[in-house]
Amino acid sequence: MMLTRFAPSPTGELHLGHAHSALFAYKAAEQVGGRFIVRIEDIDQGRCRPEFTQSILTDLAWLGLVWESPVRCQSEHFNDYRAALALLEGEGLLYPCFCTRKDIAEQTARSGHAPHGPDGVLYPGSCRALPMAERMARVAAGEAYALRLDTAEALRRVGLLRWHDRRAGMVEARPEMFGDVVLARKDTPTSYHLAVTVDDALQGVTLVTRGEDLFAATHVHRLLQAILDLPVPDYAHHRLLTDASGRRYAKRDRSLTLRALREAGRSPDEVRAMAGAGPG
Ligand code: GLU
User: Fold this and answer.
1) Domain spans, the chain
2) CB atoms closer than 10 angstroms to residue 256
3) Is 41 touching ligand 1 by the criterion CB < 6 Å?
4) Atom 2 (ligand 1): residue with closest C-alpha?
5) DSSP string spanning 84-125?
6) Is the distance from the beta carbon of residue 7 to the nearest atom of ligand 1 less than 6 Å?
C-alpha cells in the first residue's frame, strides 16, 4: 500500500509553500487509498524548537490533514542513525574529517580550483588521505570530527544506480556531484542525507514527495540506499509554490504563515485553495 510523508523541520512556522508540499503528499496517498505520515526532522538542535513542532501539527490538523500516529521525531532516534553509520564504518566507507569551514576554504584557495556541487564547494578530500595512525590519534585526543562518505569508493562497489521520479522519469544517480558528503556532523550523530534515507526506509515510505529544491539530494539518497541495502521508494519532486511575483515562499513572508492566515480569518478551505493553486 502506498505510504507518503510530509517531513518538515521545526525551524519556524509553516507557510503556504509548506502547505502546498503537505497537501501534495497527502493527496498522493488519498487518491489511491494509501497511508500518510508526518515526520519531524529536528536533528539540528540549534535551529529546531519544540514550539514549532507543536505549531506545525496544529496547522496541519487545522488544514484538515489526518496522519497516522506516532509522529516520528528524528531527535529521538539517533541510535538508528548510529547503527547505519556503524554498518558503513564496518564496510570501510566512512572517514573522520577534522576540517573546519575555514580549513576547507583555505585548501580550496590553495589548490587554485574550486569545483562546486549542489551544496557549494566540494570537499577537497584532504582527510580521506590521512594515515590511519594520525586519524586514530586525533580522535583519541578528542578533536571534533564529522564522518564523510568515501563516495568514489561507494560508487565503485555498487556500480550504476537509477531512481524514478514521477515528473523526471528514470534518473541515473550521480552522487559524485556532491563529493564526499557528511553523514554525521560534528555536533550531531547524523546528517540530513542519512536521517532522511534511513527513516524513509524504516517507516516504509513508498513514495517520497518533496519540493524540487531537493531533487539533487536524491542522487545521494539513492547511493545510501544501495550501500545500506535499503528499499528504493518512488519519488515525486513537485514544483515550488511561488507568490504573485514568482518568488518562493520563505520564512520572511510572515503574513503568509498558516497561523497568520488563520488569525486573519481565512478558512481552511481558502488556505487549501491558495496552497493548491501552485503548478503541481
Ligand atoms: N526536512 C526537509 C525540509 O524541511 C524536507 C526533507 C524531505 O522531504 O526529504 O526541507
Assistant:
1) 1-76+242-280, 78-202
2) 20
3) yes
4) 8
5) HHHHHHHTT-EEEE---HHHHHHHHHHHT---EETTEEPP--
6) yes
pLDDT tens per residue across all 280 residues of the chain? 999 999 999 999 999 999 999 999 999 999 999 999 999 999 999 999 999 999 999 999 999 999 999 999 999 999 999 999 999 999 999 999 999 999 999 998 888 888 899 988 999 999 999 999 999 999 999 999 999 999 999 999 999 999 999 999 999 999 999 999 999 999 999 999 999 999 999 999 999 999 999 999 999 999 999 999 999 999 999 999 888 788 888 766 776 899 999 999 999 999 999 998 654 4
> Cα(236) to centroid of ligand 1, in Å?
13
Distance 210 CA to ligand 1 centre (A): 7
Fold classification of 78-202 is Glutamyl-tRNA Synthetase; domain 3 (3.90.800)
Ligand 1 centroid distance, CA of 259 (Å): 20
Strands 120-121, 116-117: parallel, antiparallel or unpaired by DSSP?
antiparallel
Closest ligand 1 atom number to CA of residue 211: 8
Per the CB < 8 A criterion, the answer to whether 123 and 196 are in contact is no
Pocket test for ligand 1, best of 41, 59, 163 (most atoms within 8 A of CB): 41
pTM for the predicted model, two decimal places: 0.96
Relative to the CA of 209, which ligand 1 atom is closest?
A: 8
Secondary structure tally for the chain: helices H, strands E = 10, 12
78-202 shares the fold of 1-76+242-280: no
> Looking up cell 496547522, which residue turns up?
59
Tell which CATH architecture fits domain 1-76+242-280: 3-Layer(aba) Sandwich (3.40)
Distance in Å, CA 91 to ligand 1 centroid: 28
